[in-house]
Backbone:
């Protein structure tokens, strides 16, 4: 501890006295722990890289990998706290766990896993999802937990009659740390449709499913975790849970927990997008938008998933399987070219140069088209992906136009889904964005504003992503002051947060609209490529 640094001394006291809050998020490729102080400032982080495994034609992670990864991420966090603050944390004001949403974790009466964890990436649930969408009158995506359960029922898998508990990855970890079988309402909204008025599973739809599956699987009310809204105490860390997370024995039991949440919900918190007429866009390997609704949609749309905020307010989600990976592949090629030319550039420098070039491109990308479909894309009607660059003979192939087309291409399928919301008359005052492609100031943010025809804000506060958002939800439980989540975020977390907002430029809006018309028409070329190559 540096006695000459008042801020360092204060941070050390916050940690030593157990006034910091801890959030842990299990993402698809990284498990991250984030420790924050009372003002939501980041005090330390820890992480662990991991990968899913494709086994027996299903994507999975072993439960051993879950715990090895959690222990490694937590141990790195503790090590960083010791190095940065000179103290060893033993307790926290509150804790919380979030994870990739959806998927399938089924347990028997003894708490034993009945089948390998089936993640959100699995697409073997087409028959079940279609039948449930028809039955429930709600779009049921392939990745939702109820789709996985019903597919197992349809396939008469031997383990189905033995199921006594079904949960998500976040719900599983929370259960093992606290003994409580609960879910935050946002995560629960990827398990089964939620009634936003009741902040619980839709009772009428639960009854419909129970009638359909009667005699084949126990009633959902007996299988599913209890639903809790943000700010509700969700149990305390048990002695067994403390030993699971921290085998060193330093971590003390008794720490209160926030309800376990999904990564979509923590992303909304991390971008202050939980109020009606706000939303957020997360751009990474995939890209998705979340828009908080003022009223129900008029009909079912396959492009839109209906989920909720961590407080239970209805949200329309546009989820695209393909995000910035193809853009990254082109950037990597340009980085390699710079080395071959004898003027090597760092990846960050390459991105900065390419993004800056895009700013001088023509508003419609000069007639160029770029498709980022490395994988199938349901919104675009594609079972598989074929990345393409397409142009007509009279298009203008320049570096600025090429890069603008690539950036527009990241937002192309997203814009198709957002157009459905626009046709529904959904109001949108501001979108918040986060993800690595927004690090180059004023470029991707500007083009996203054009694609959405709405202001797009980027906050520095969300730099730690979902783990930071989960830590904020834990701090919200610790506060216990009775403010609703929207007010809490506005007053206690984001009041002084640096925020950069890009308003849509009319020329860019018109240019992207022209690009999207060509993009939509050119999907036939994509489909032909999938069929032919």
Residues:
């Amino acid at each position: 501890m540096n006695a000459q640094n008042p801020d360092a001394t204060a941070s050390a006291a916050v940690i030593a006295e157990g006034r910091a809050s801890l959030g842990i998020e299990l993402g698809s490729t990284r498990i991250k722990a984030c420790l924050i102080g009372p003002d939501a400032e980041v005090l330390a982080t820890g992480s662990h890289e991991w990968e899913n495994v494709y086994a027996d034609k299903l994507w999975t992670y072993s439960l051993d990998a879950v715990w090895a990864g959690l222990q490694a991420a937590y141990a790195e966090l503790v090590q960083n706290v010791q190095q940065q603050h000179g103290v060893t944390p033993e307790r926290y004001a509150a804790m919380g766990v979030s994870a990739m949403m959806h998927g399938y974790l089924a347990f028997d009466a003894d708490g034993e896993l009945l089948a390998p964890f089936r993640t959100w990436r699995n697409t073997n649930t087409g028959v079940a999802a279609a039948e449930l969408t028809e039955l429930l009158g709600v779009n049921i995506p392939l990745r939702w937990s109820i789709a996985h359960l019903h597919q197992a029922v349809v396939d008469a898998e031997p383990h189905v009659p033995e199921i006594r508990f079904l949960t998500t990855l976040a719900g599983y970890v929370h259960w093992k740390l606290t003994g409580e079988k609960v879910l935050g309402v946002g995560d629960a909204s990827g398990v089964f449709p939620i009634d936003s008025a009741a902040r619980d599973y839709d009772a009428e739809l639960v009854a419909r499913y129970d009638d359909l599956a009667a005699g084949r699987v126990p009633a959902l009310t007996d299988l599913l975790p209890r639903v809790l809204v943000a700010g509700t105490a969700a149990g305390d860390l048990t002695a067994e849970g403390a030993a699971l997370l921290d085998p060193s024995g330093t971590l003390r039991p008794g720490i209160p927990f926030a309800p376990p949440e999904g990564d979509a919900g923590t992303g909304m918190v991390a971008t202050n997008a939980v109020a009606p007429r706000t939303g957020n866009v997360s751009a990474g390997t995939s890209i998705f938008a979340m828009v908080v609704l003022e009223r129900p949609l008029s009909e079912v749309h396959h492009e839109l998933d209906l989920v909720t905020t961590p407080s239970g307010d209805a949200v329309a989600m546009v989820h695209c399987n393909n995000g910035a990976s193809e853009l990254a592949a082109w950037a990597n090629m340009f980085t390699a070219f710079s080395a071959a030319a004898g003027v090597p550039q760092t990846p960050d420098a390459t991105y900065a140069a390419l993004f800056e070039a895009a700013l001088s491109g023509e508003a419609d990308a000069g007639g160029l088209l770029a498709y980022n479909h490395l994988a199938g894309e349901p919104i675009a009607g594609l079972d598989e992906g074929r990345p393409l660059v397409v142009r007509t003979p009279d298009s203008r192939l320049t570096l600025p136009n090429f890069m603008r087309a690539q950036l527009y291409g990241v937002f192309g399928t997203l814009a198709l889904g957002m157009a459905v919301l626009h046709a529904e008359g959904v109001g949108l005052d501001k979108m918040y964005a986060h993800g690595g492609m927004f690090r180059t100031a004023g470029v991707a943010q500007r083009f996203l504003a054009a694609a959405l025809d709405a202001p797009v804000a980027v906050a520095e506060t969300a730099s730690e992503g979902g783990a930071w958002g989960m830590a904020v939800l834990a701090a919200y439980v610790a506060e216990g002051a009775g403010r609703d989540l929207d007010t809490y975020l506005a007053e206690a977390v984001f009041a002084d947060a640096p925020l950069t907002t890009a308003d849509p430029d009319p020329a860019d809006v018109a240019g992207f609209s022209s690009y999207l018309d060509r993009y939509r028409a050119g999907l036939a070329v994509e489909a032909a490529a999938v069929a032919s190559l």
Observations:
- The chain has a mean pLDDT of 93.
- The first strand starts at residue 21 and ends at 26.
- The domain at 265-322+419-502 is CATH 3.30.420.40 (Nucleotidyltransferase; domain 5).
- DSSP finds 17 helices and 22 strands in the chain.
